[in-house]
Amino acid sequence: xxxxxxxxEDVDPDDGVVDLQSEDHPLERDEPADNRKSAAEREAIAxxxxxxxxxxxxxxxxxxxxxxxxxxxxxxxxxxxxxxxxHGRVIDVDTSAAAAMDGVHAVITPWSEEVPDTLYSPSGQxxxxxxxxxxRVLSEHVRYVGDRIAAVxxxxxxxxxxxxxxxxxxxxxxxxxxxxxxxxxxEAPQLFAPEEVENETTGxxxxxxxxxxxxxxxxxxxxxxxxxxEERVLETEWETPYQSHCVPEPHTSIxxxxxxxxxxxxxxxxxxxxxxxxxxxxxxxxxxxIRVVKPRVGAGFGSKQEMVVEPVALALHRAAGIxxxxxxxxxxxxxxxxxxxxxxxxxxxxxxxxxDPAAMDLSVRENSGAYGTHGMTVASNVATKAFPLYPRxxxxxxxxxxxxxxxxxxxxxRGYGAPQGMFVVEGHMDELARQLGEDPIExxxxxxxxxxxxDRAAAILKDDDRFARRIRSCGLRECIxxxxxxxxxxxxxxxxxxxxxxxxxxxxxxxxxxxxxxxLGAAQLKMNEDGSFVLQVGGVDVGSGNDTMxxxxxxxxxxxxxxxxxxxSSDTDFAPFxxxxxxxxxxxxxxxxxxxxxREARDRVLEWASRMLDExxxxxxxxxxxxxxxxxxxxxxxxxxxxxxxxxDEDREHIMGQGHHATDESPPPFGAQFLTAVVDExxxxxxxxxxxxxxxxxxxxxxxxxxxxxxxxxxxSYEFATSGTLQFGEAGQPETVGFRQYxxxxxxxxxxxxxxxxxxxxxxxxxxxxxxxxLPTNGVPPALSNAIRDAVGVRITEIPIEPEDVKAALxxxxxx
Amino acid sequence: MxxxxxxxxxxxxxxxxxxxxxxDVLRKNxxxxxxxxxxxxxxxxxxxxxxGKARNSCVVPASKADGSTVETIEGLGSQSDLHPVQEAFxxxxxxxxxxxxxGMIMRSTALLGEDPDPTRDEIREGLSENLCRCTxxxxxxxxxxxxxxxxxxxxxxxxxxxxxxxxxxDGPCGCEPGGGGT
Lengths: 816, 182
Description:
The complex is a heterodimer.
Chain A: H1 54-58, E1 76-82, E2 88-94, H2 96-99, E3 104-108, E4 141-142, E5 148-154, H3 157-165, E6 168-173, E7 210-218, H4 221-227, E8 233-240, E9 243-244, E10 252-257, E11 263-267, H5 272-283, E12 290-293, H6 310-320, E13 324-327, H7 330-335, E14 339-340, E15 343-351, E16 357-369, H8 375-386, E17 395-404, H9 418-435, H10 440-447, E18 454-455, E19 469-470, H11 476-487, E20 500-510, E21 521-527, E22 533-537, H12 546-558, E23 565-569, H13 586-613, E24 620-623, E25 626-629, E26 635-637, H14 638-647, E27 656-661, E28 670-680, E29 686-696, H15 703-722, H16 739-742, E30 753-758, H17 780-792, H18 803-813
Parallel strand pairs in A: 1-13, 11-12, 16-17, 22-23, 29-30
Antiparallel strand pairs in A: 1-5, 2-4, 2-6, 3-5, 7-17, 8-15, 9-14, 10-11, 10-13, 15-16, 18-19, 20-28, 21-22, 21-27, 24-25, 25-26, 28-29
Chain B: E1 2-7, E2 10-15, H1 22-28, E3 47-50, E4 53-56, H2 62-65, E5 69-71, H3 84-91, H4 101-114, H5 120-126, H6 138-160
Parallel strand pairs in B: 1-5
Antiparallel strand pairs in B: 1-2, 3-4, 3-5
Helix pairs in contact in B: 3-6
């Protein structure tokens, strides 16, 4: 168990979940003895190790996909031709003028022989994908402005663009639907005919444009809410918009055929192995004939969990016969690629006589947009990520509808439903506390999850309790206390101007560490004769620092300097398997695989050192680049072991270790988001002054990188609350096509962010670590709604929060 | 057409199309440190220094750049001999995916050339043309503050040393090591 939260109460850990077979989810774990180290014992972990790729980044030498162009003497550049209408059928595509242009290598349409018409899911999820197969490489039936119809490869991008403009498309136009409530009307135009979808998800009903309907519950939430007095029931409604990933490096792929007649794909991806499998499916090419290589990636945030441009680049390469680079434009990133799913949400709670929540009921209607990638799974995570903040509530219900419209598709985005879930649950709980006359922070401290709790909210949509989980580390109350101190909660003071009011808001946050029961990470570590190591690992670093974290784990196990570990990751020919960088999995899953590989290599290092020192291996330790005996004080360096093992007289061995990790566990990291905001009562304008996020991610393997995750996550969350979103015209025409229209906060627009790292110990994680990547993306919308409520007494339930919304709410408050 | 640049201290002559931007010319000729993020001058990933000023090279026509002095990230420091601004970004972990960083470093270098001791708010203002999606900007602001200190220390140390040019700063920042520092 980790450091327990301070709690003055006598708490039964199974309170509220007594019908669960708790022996299946024991609190104590068999933890390897070396997994728990005090701060004084740590050498390589919890240290400020220089980021593995820092020097090549600051010198401009780090190579991203588009930078590989210089390696290809002949390289075609490509452009995609996209639908100009929101819904219809492509009757004819006249490519003759484009194909006849000088410098054009290939033009492809849905009917080209190089373009398969296989249905697939671009979702970059594990197999079989929990997303429908509803996508084709190029579409005859177009479902949003931006759908792919044709593509051109030419001598350069400028020629490809000119050729694309000469392609003439004839459509049969269909009615379109843009509203998620209109879309399920029987009269609404239907986006998918039965033969246009395979691998349907739970509760699909395409006649109603329903990609999925799902529900789950435990206890008797309906009964409890129905039986409660009216004043003990609170119902609130919430609305969240599209959010762009604003991924720095646009989606880019280079595809070529190598001298072994195999397809090579250099691509900006979070999921090299899933991409290889999906390409194999789409093009009916053997997996062994595809190699996917991830170079440096200019971040993903979920947008590159998608297999977006790879199939188009591969089809163009087949048609052009030379290497092809397809690099999306920023305009395409905004209007045609991927976003966070918009949602409408309703939450109901009933409180018992003691003032404790007795039932929670949450329903979500998600706009999946034109295609279903991650539609059902993101909507599911709204409650399975947020409800675990309150696992003691005995009656819980959750249902969702995932609806298609003729607008851009949602997809995975950092947080994955949790930002919408925390907005609703933490806004609602704050409102509930205030209506009960309680301090909203004290109320949450009393109600929220504690170490030792059994959480089955994470498994509310499952048929059994396999994925219920024991909370073995929880630093939530320390997060609250330290966050409150940093924001100055007890004395925030008020501005001099009587029209301006300062409020403070808090929201609790939770996430997971990988997808429970659906992850695999693997690694192989090879020793060099000088005592350094080469780590081959499937785990994918798209910028957050996973390669660095891997070197620290190896260093901690083997007692070597992390700088002596060379990382070769994310190449499907050379790196062991990994599901990829999503669901906050890499430290927890791939990190454990690396630790196991390092332990196996360490066993061989100790065996060789034992022979060299003539002492039993059990008496030997590693540290400081040496193997030493505490008994005799004798030692050999890792370099001496390296040379002896490879060049020894009597015997020789290449010291290696392998590890893989798969688990049903997904321990939640926890956090508390605080902010102060000043609201002008006359205009409704508000200013966020300071953002504080305290995070419990277990043991932080690299504290500065953890702080970076917090600060970047809070930035995205601040944007979600205040400024980002996409606008469309009446006919679904995109109106937000650039950074300046979109409103991503610039350095002079981003309020200061303070990050606080609260250490706990997660016994199932590598050296006690949980995840951090997504957690901090969840808190600003509810914290801001709560701060405005605190400042001027109105509740805002729609983001981004516009001054007009605040002004209208103030007018309603004053009875105007 | 031909474009002549005084590029990182060397005279270079490149072939360019009429529609090419300075970014196109640089990237086509192997200077891939500057990144293509938007092609509309909105993100700053392509920032280089043209005639002493930080510019978004994607909106500088190649024809307009002809004859100018251009400094790119490739001319700043090497992995084993970093410029103080690069050093400060590394030591403050002021980078994640890194796609914005060459532009951010060039903008910061130009900023410190104009104002060697900016306040944190002045740094925010000075970097406002450059976006970063990963860091929330906090560690970047830390790094630029730290770089200002490092460069002040260096020029101070050089002055105490009798005014010999420093070895660590021959970049385009205009800090003139030893040549007039306070």
